[in-house]
Description:
This protein is mostly beta strands. It has one helix at 56-61, and strands at 8-13, 15-19, 23-28, 31-36, 50-55. It starts with 7 loop residues before the first strand and ends in a 27-residue tail after the last helix.
Amino acid sequence: MGEFVKKFRPVEVEEVKRETEKALLVTIEGTDHWMPKSQCGSEMTVGDSGELLITEWIGGEKGLFEKQPITTAGHSAPPRAPDDGIPF
Length: 88
């Protein structure tokens, strides 16, 4: 198996409120989120604001990035039609 590579995306942090050894408490769009430092690709400290790089995974888990349906081929799936009751 190949090595897993983290993919990072930027989020705009209004403020870093707290910091522990392993996480940051950040405010993004008016909501506080604990961000594991292991999922951050850039460093911030208490009182900072600005752009923070976070993994696509943690951003998706926290609802910060829109989740795209994925097919087995790795392409975005088309929108599903409403359920018409037909089982196939």
